[in-house]
Design goal:
By secondary structure, this protein is of the alpha/beta class. It has 4 helices and 17 strands. A 10-stranded mixed sheet has the order 1-2-4-6-7-9-11-13-15-17. It has a 5-stranded parallel sheet with strand order 8-10-12-14-16, with no helix packed on it. It has a two-stranded parallel ribbon with strand order 3-5. The radius of gyration is 24 Å and the shape is elongated. The chain starts with a helix and ends with a helix.
Amino acid sequence: MKRFLSYFLFFGFSLFTISLRAQVSQLEKSVLKEFYKKTDGDNWHVKWNLEAGIETWHGVVLENGHVSEINLHRNGLKGNIPKSIGGLKHLKVLDLSFNNLTSSIPPSLLSIKSLTTVKLEMNNLTGEIPKNFDKDNSLQELTLFNNSLSGKIPEQIGEAITLKVLNLSSNFLEGSLPKSIMNLEDLTMLEVFGNKLHGSIEIDFEGLKKLEDLVLSNNQFEGNLPQSIARLKNLKFVQLQGNNFKSIRSLLNSRSEGIATFESDDEFLNMKFKNDAINRTRLAKTQFEDSNN
């Protein structure tokens, strides 16, 4: 009986696997094959066997017969992301970070409504950030640091209202921070370090109550730092150095009780937040010791 049950389970699993292969549409297969070709798949660190089932392909996750995830982090990809990637209508996660991808980011990528995570950092992508952000999308993380992207941060980024992580650091982006960022109420991380951004920051940060990381360093921002930043209670990591701010002293009234890292060109504030962090650590240590006595 046990042997019969084992055979039955094995047979059932085999049928499920065959069924899973059959369910993956021809369109999705062709998109993946073109992606493999356009990114020099034959020279990847871990290659795909195009004759085998898609469920065996490195970094590809299937869900209900559709491609839901592609994770090819540090896999030796070269070339460009093809426009056809927009055909993966059920894709949720795309991680192509730490490769050598070039050319621009195809707007078709952002047209995928199910997409939650895009990680393209540490490549050599060029051109502008696509503008077709949409309130109907599911995007929660957009990480593009250390590329060669240029142009302005699109005002339409404020349409991506589900965004939690936005990291555009170390590119060649110009212009000002778009005011529409104030619409991203779920944002926990905003990092634009090392670009060519300039002008006054005219964003009301009041609505970004979940913001923890704010990195604006090494740009050309001017004027006074918005007072609304001082009202953010969850800030933990702040870098403002390397700009032309007239004043950032509004942070003297910061309501955050947990800033662990603070760096700016204002040595008085640097010392203040450093001492605050030290005092919090001492207090926590004392409370821990008291609780054990």
